[in-house]
Amino acid sequence: MARGARRSSGLLDARSQAILLAVIEEYVTRAIPVGSQTLVERYLLGVSSATVRNVLAELEAEGYLGHPHTSAGRVPTDAGYRFYVEALVGEHALPPVDQLMIRHQFGQVEFATDQWFRLAATTLSSVTHAAGLATAAKPRAARIRHLDLVGIGDRMASLIVVLNEGSVKQGLLTIDPGTTADELAEAAQRLNRSCLGLTAADFAERLRWFEEAPIDDPVFAFVRRAGDRALRILREFDATTVEQLFSDGLLHVMAEPEFKASEKLRRVFEALENRQYLGELIEDVTRGGVTRVYIGRENRPAEMADVSLILAPYGRPGAAVGVVGVLGPTRLRYPQAIGSVRFVSRLMNDLVDHLYA
Amino acid sequence: MARGARRSSGLLDARSQAILLAVIEEYVTRAIPVGSQTLVERYLLGVSSATVRNVLAELEAEGYLGHPHTSAGRVPTDAGYRFYVEALVGEHALPPVDQLMIRHQFGQVEFATDQWFRLAATTLSSVTHAAGLATAAKPRAARIRHLDLVGIGDRMASLIVVLNEGSVKQGLLTIDPGTTADELAEAAQRLNRSCLGLTAADFAERLRWFEEAPIDDPVFAFVRRAGDRALRILREFDATTVEQLFSDGLLHVMAEPEFKASEKLRRVFEALENRQYLGELIEDVTRGGVTRVYIGRENRPAEMADVSLILAPYGRPGAAVGVVGVLGPTRLRYPQAIGSVRFVSRLMNDLVDHLYA
DNA sequence: GCTGGCACTCCACCAAGGAGAGTGCTAGCG
DNA sequence: CGCTAGCACTCTCCTTGGTGGAGTGCCAGC
Lengths: 357, 357
Prior knowledge:
The structure is a homodimer. Chain A is an alpha+beta fold. The first copy, chain A, contains 14 helices and ten strands. Chain A has a five-stranded antiparallel β-sheet with strand order 7-3-10-9-8. The first copy, chain A, has a three-stranded antiparallel β-sheet with strand order 4-5-6. A two-stranded antiparallel ribbon of chain A has the order 1-2. Chain A starts with a helix and ends with a helix. The structure holds a DNA duplex.
């Protein structure tokens, strides 16, 4: 029997696909289980509701649709969404007007690196009506581009570390009262000469070499101390998987009917807060170098079973990489969301490229 | 009639106060309206439930208690909490063990200014089980302490601006390809010489003075451009009321029974997101210089009618000030929360003081 | 002025029942 | 042989009505 053969192969004929598509789009917009009647009325399928019911039953057997209870309409399963994303729709480009608006906004912060990531999160959130996520671009191993020492008050100095990808870190350092600005500058210069372009590992080596130098020079002792502090900053930076995560619009998700009046979303937030899983995903995505979609239970943590994530990498694989994306209910406008995420990731790519051009 | 006189004066005798206290503490811990029976059973008041009922009726007439419906127990009103905070309990100091733990945590980030604020928010959140808030210390008018220019790639330079209170801002700048590190350093030095300690207004003046200098010197033109960029950074900094707001533990609030399954909290978040009202409060608190408690409807925006805020200033009024605090349901453990907030604000004070010692 | 007693009120909870939506199945049609 | 019309069935949702219980307000008596 042809039908049996098709079922086991997992392929769907055109009509089944059309109906699956209709179910998903209907469910995504209305958030209520969809029945055969509705489909016939709204999607002009040219067949009767009974026929549609037969097809729906098949789609359910294949695992693409589910049933909240016996006499309810159909709801897409994670597998249904997966098929939808991969075979049925792919990606929708952002409307040109949105593209223009977003480009404009990014244009305004072109020279303020620290705002890029925040803006990426905000933009994605407002365009997709889901939560927007963005991590700062982070190199696998930071290199020092520049060091500076600035006196703050009488017994404190601020150690400023500029990393190769352009981000700036800062730490405090105690100094002897009476240390002059010139002495600080001198110390900074010495450090700069000896540590430019070094990673934490190399820098540690270099400092060990310092260690063997004579101790009696007070400036030298200070240089060593500042070096230690810089090394610590560097190591802390390397150690964190997700340096900074910006998120915006978690409220949007909160407003979705499936999360109204429910404990679920709180769990999701909690899972997000500890960064563990997100860190892994980001690792995944940056390593893979392509946009990834994680639907519902495809997320390992149980708390994330009701949300989907779309993540895209940006940056230069050799130098520094980050991730942008959205988080929303599994009932997500995937084509639009994927398009938006990829658009923003390309924009971020361009911005980061400028830094290395 | 003495009772009538007392009622109009708004003063309460010892027993009424004891009962009001009992109602509030009971309600704060159990989150269910409290009846006369419960009070007699749990608080050993030495009188019968009927007497308690009479007192409760008086307290309600005075406006300290409310009634969800005719046959329900009593619930404190905002005025009730207000009286409780001002006349009945005041502030509870944090348990020494918590103090020690918090001091320890702050000790670990003593030299990483950018982590102070985040830690303050996190700490307050975990100690009070409400949302913790903290703004970075911000001077009324920023002054430049130090400028630096660092080449990034071939046609970009990072402009680093260290402000007087120690925070570091950063912006990008295009440069002519082939500009050497020495030229950048030279430009930075020139800027430093002429703008040290200036506010945005003074700096603008100085730059105007630059304007009139001969244009043909290419380094000079660049210095001018970098100056403009620095000025913009300075002005942006001055313009924002709340430079950075760290919050943590909004989840705690979400878990409270009054917000479970309700739209209310989402509104609160939204009201928080636009920073308008919070900015005003912070202005209030820093100007007043003392810890303030805003209970329920005392908050102007209607969305905030169900939450209370406790905010305390820290920093040096002349130099830089910030705010720490908590946000929770009106049903809050005020004494503990106030104590915690003030403790953390004192800690932050000490930290900031180090910068100016 | 306090207390015990009592009638009253109102919510929370549960069960019953009807409307509605949607299904699965079957017989019949082209 | 696939599609369709019809129909019985199922399950949710909503409304309705009834009950128990918690808590109040008031009154008479100590």
